[in-house]
Write a structure and sequence with these properties.
With 156 residues, this protein is α+β, with helices and mostly antiparallel strands. It has helices at 25-40, 59-67, 87-90, 93-101, 105-114, 126-149, and strands at 2-6, 13-18, 48-52, 70-74. The strands form 2 sheets. Strands 1-2 form a two-stranded antiparallel sheet. Strand 1 (2-6) and strand 2 form a beta hairpin. Helix 5 packs across helix 6.
Protein backbone atom coordinates (compact mmCIF):
# COMPACT_ATOMS: atom_id res chain seq x y z
CA UNK A 1 0.00 0.00 0.00
CA UNK A 2 1.49 3.36 -1.05
CA UNK A 3 1.22 6.42 1.20
CA UNK A 4 2.13 10.04 0.55
CA UNK A 5 2.24 13.26 2.53
CA UNK A 6 1.85 16.45 0.51
CA UNK A 7 2.07 20.12 1.31
CA UNK A 8 -1.15 22.09 1.03
CA UNK A 9 0.33 25.05 -0.76
CA UNK A 10 1.74 23.48 -3.93
CA UNK A 11 0.64 19.85 -3.86
CA UNK A 12 4.22 18.55 -3.79
CA UNK A 13 4.88 15.15 -2.22
CA UNK A 14 7.06 15.70 0.86
CA UNK A 15 7.13 12.07 2.01
CA UNK A 16 6.25 8.73 0.45
CA UNK A 17 6.40 5.16 1.67
CA UNK A 18 5.03 1.69 1.02
CA UNK A 19 3.70 -0.59 3.76
CA UNK A 20 2.02 -3.96 3.96
CA UNK A 21 -1.76 -3.48 3.82
CA UNK A 22 -3.20 -4.67 7.12
CA UNK A 23 -6.11 -2.38 8.01
CA UNK A 24 -4.00 -0.09 10.19
CA UNK A 25 -1.31 0.79 7.65
CA UNK A 26 -2.75 4.16 6.58
CA UNK A 27 -2.88 5.69 10.05
CA UNK A 28 0.45 4.18 11.12
CA UNK A 29 2.16 5.48 7.97
CA UNK A 30 0.55 8.90 8.46
CA UNK A 31 1.89 9.07 12.03
CA UNK A 32 5.40 8.15 10.87
CA UNK A 33 5.37 10.67 8.01
CA UNK A 34 3.91 13.53 10.06
CA UNK A 35 6.51 12.82 12.78
CA UNK A 36 9.23 13.24 10.14
CA UNK A 37 7.60 16.51 9.02
CA UNK A 38 7.36 17.71 12.62
CA UNK A 39 11.07 16.98 13.14
CA UNK A 40 11.97 18.90 9.97
CA UNK A 41 10.03 22.00 11.10
CA UNK A 42 12.12 25.09 11.82
CA UNK A 43 11.18 25.06 15.50
CA UNK A 44 8.92 23.21 17.91
CA UNK A 45 6.57 26.22 17.82
CA UNK A 46 5.98 25.97 14.05
CA UNK A 47 2.31 25.28 13.39
CA UNK A 48 1.78 21.96 11.63
CA UNK A 49 -1.63 20.75 10.47
CA UNK A 50 -2.74 17.49 8.90
CA UNK A 51 -5.71 17.34 6.55
CA UNK A 52 -7.18 13.88 5.98
CA UNK A 53 -10.40 12.08 5.10
CA UNK A 54 -12.94 10.43 7.41
CA UNK A 55 -10.94 7.22 7.60
CA UNK A 56 -8.48 8.98 9.90
CA UNK A 57 -11.15 10.15 12.38
CA UNK A 58 -10.16 7.74 15.17
CA UNK A 59 -9.57 8.82 18.77
CA UNK A 60 -6.17 7.09 18.94
CA UNK A 61 -4.94 8.82 15.78
CA UNK A 62 -6.20 12.27 16.83
CA UNK A 63 -4.55 11.88 20.25
CA UNK A 64 -1.26 10.88 18.61
CA UNK A 65 -1.39 14.05 16.47
CA UNK A 66 -2.03 16.19 19.54
CA UNK A 67 0.95 14.62 21.33
CA UNK A 68 3.10 15.59 18.31
CA UNK A 69 1.67 19.15 18.46
CA UNK A 70 -0.07 18.72 15.10
CA UNK A 71 -3.52 20.24 14.59
CA UNK A 72 -5.85 17.54 13.19
CA UNK A 73 -7.75 18.86 10.18
CA UNK A 74 -9.35 15.45 9.70
CA UNK A 75 -12.83 15.25 8.16
CA UNK A 76 -15.35 14.57 10.88
CA UNK A 77 -17.07 11.20 10.68
CA UNK A 78 -20.42 11.67 12.41
CA UNK A 79 -22.22 8.75 10.74
CA UNK A 80 -23.84 7.18 13.80
CA UNK A 81 -20.97 8.13 16.10
CA UNK A 82 -19.16 11.01 17.71
CA UNK A 83 -16.18 12.49 15.90
CA UNK A 84 -12.78 12.55 17.60
CA UNK A 85 -12.09 15.96 15.98
CA UNK A 86 -13.19 18.83 18.20
CA UNK A 87 -15.93 21.09 16.81
CA UNK A 88 -13.75 24.16 17.54
CA UNK A 89 -11.17 22.84 15.08
CA UNK A 90 -13.79 21.83 12.50
CA UNK A 91 -15.29 25.33 12.50
CA UNK A 92 -12.00 27.13 11.86
CA UNK A 93 -11.05 28.74 8.57
CA UNK A 94 -7.83 26.70 8.36
CA UNK A 95 -9.84 23.47 8.64
CA UNK A 96 -12.01 24.47 5.67
CA UNK A 97 -8.92 25.27 3.60
CA UNK A 98 -7.31 21.93 4.53
CA UNK A 99 -10.44 20.04 3.52
CA UNK A 100 -10.39 21.69 0.07
CA UNK A 101 -6.64 21.23 -0.41
CA UNK A 102 -6.44 17.60 0.73
CA UNK A 103 -7.73 16.55 -2.67
CA UNK A 104 -4.34 17.54 -4.15
CA UNK A 105 -2.95 14.25 -2.85
CA UNK A 106 -5.01 12.33 -5.40
CA UNK A 107 -3.24 14.03 -8.33
CA UNK A 108 0.05 12.36 -7.45
CA UNK A 109 -1.55 8.92 -7.33
CA UNK A 110 -3.37 9.56 -10.61
CA UNK A 111 -0.12 10.61 -12.30
CA UNK A 112 1.76 7.64 -10.84
CA UNK A 113 -0.83 5.20 -12.19
CA UNK A 114 -1.44 6.83 -15.57
CA UNK A 115 2.04 8.06 -16.51
CA UNK A 116 4.28 6.35 -13.96
CA UNK A 117 4.78 2.62 -13.45
CA UNK A 118 2.56 2.17 -10.40
CA UNK A 119 -0.56 0.75 -12.09
CA UNK A 120 1.15 -2.63 -12.45
CA UNK A 121 4.51 -2.80 -10.69
CA UNK A 122 7.14 -5.03 -12.24
CA UNK A 123 9.14 -5.63 -9.06
CA UNK A 124 8.37 -7.81 -6.06
CA UNK A 125 9.11 -7.29 -2.41
CA UNK A 126 8.22 -4.38 -0.19
CA UNK A 127 11.69 -2.79 -0.35
CA UNK A 128 11.76 -2.76 -4.15
CA UNK A 129 8.18 -1.55 -4.45
CA UNK A 130 8.97 1.19 -1.90
CA UNK A 131 11.98 2.32 -3.95
CA UNK A 132 9.90 2.38 -7.14
CA UNK A 133 7.08 4.28 -5.42
CA UNK A 134 9.38 6.91 -3.88
CA UNK A 135 11.20 7.39 -7.20
CA UNK A 136 7.87 7.75 -9.02
CA UNK A 137 6.69 10.38 -6.55
CA UNK A 138 9.99 12.26 -6.97
CA UNK A 139 9.39 12.25 -10.74
CA UNK A 140 5.84 13.53 -10.13
CA UNK A 141 7.30 16.38 -8.05
CA UNK A 142 9.57 17.36 -10.94
CA UNK A 143 6.62 17.45 -13.33
CA UNK A 144 4.54 19.37 -10.78
CA UNK A 145 7.34 21.93 -10.22
CA UNK A 146 7.62 22.45 -13.97
CA UNK A 147 3.88 23.15 -14.08
CA UNK A 148 4.06 25.49 -11.09
CA UNK A 149 6.97 27.43 -12.64
CA UNK A 150 5.37 27.93 -16.05
CA UNK A 151 5.21 31.54 -17.08
CA UNK A 152 1.64 32.36 -17.89
CA UNK A 153 1.06 35.29 -20.26
CA UNK A 154 -1.06 38.10 -18.89
CA UNK A 155 -4.45 38.55 -20.52
CA UNK A 156 -4.61 41.62 -22.79
Amino acid sequence: MGHTLTDNRHGLVVNAMVTQADGFAEREAAKAMIWDARQAAASADTEVTLGADKGYDAAEFIEALKRMKVTPHVAQNKAGRRSAVADEIAQSEGYAISQRKRKLIEQGFGWAKFVGPIRQVTVRGIKKVDQLFVLTMAAYNLVRMRTLAEVRPLAP
